[in-house]
Amino acid sequence: MPLSFSKIFIGFSVFSVILVSNVANDVPKKPYELVNDVCRKQWNKQFCLEVLKFDTRSEFAEDIRTLTTISLDVATKRLTATRDCFLGVKTGPPAILKSLKDCIDPYNFVIQSLQNCLIEDDCLLTGYDIHIAGDEVTRCQKFVDSNGAHDSFITTSNNVTLEYCWLSESLANLMCDETRG
Ligand SMILES: *[C@@H]1O[C@H](CO)[C@@H](O)[C@H](O)[C@H]1NC(C)=O
């Protein structure tokens, strides 16, 4: 009995050492190494850092797919909150109320696209889906402009939404480069 216990113990110790040294080799040395690397290449570096650091999975992320997933998750949550805020406005100037109504469908489309784009078989279709989603935000803004609600809080929201789309699209395309290269 004591013999088999010590065998197990030694076996376990050796196993642990192998496990620890493997992990030590795989993990990037500094926190946020990949995040900083990737965000440096974005046109809005600050926005990129804020979005990705919002989720703790980014700290020791080893691939761009993880960062793309985070960006899409954060964007989906944020845009769902924006859409719900649009739905919640019941009183205000007619131009605003009409614009909010016009923008619900585009926003539903954007949210759904961002939620589903990662399951595309062809990696390049992920970036394409996000690009099309961004066009829907522009469509919403066109409604807003033609209704005379330019410079309202809807425009501010659309500008932020576009930032999420551009960041996610850019990360998705980097992700494909990573997979192929
Ligand atoms: C939204 O973005 C457009 C284009 O970049 C800019 O001209 C406009 O001032 C922004 N509006 C608001 C309210 O943020």
TrEMBL record:
SUPFAM superfamilies: Plant invertase/pectin methylesterase inhibitor. Transmembrane segments: none annotated. Residues 34-120 form the Pectinesterase inhibitor domain. Keywords: Signal. GO terms for molecular function: enzyme inhibitor activity. The keyword Signal applies. Residues 1-24 form the signal peptide. Pfam families: PMEI. InterPro entries: Invertase/methylesterase_inhib, Pectinesterase_inhib_dom. This is Pectinesterase inhibitor domain-containing protein.
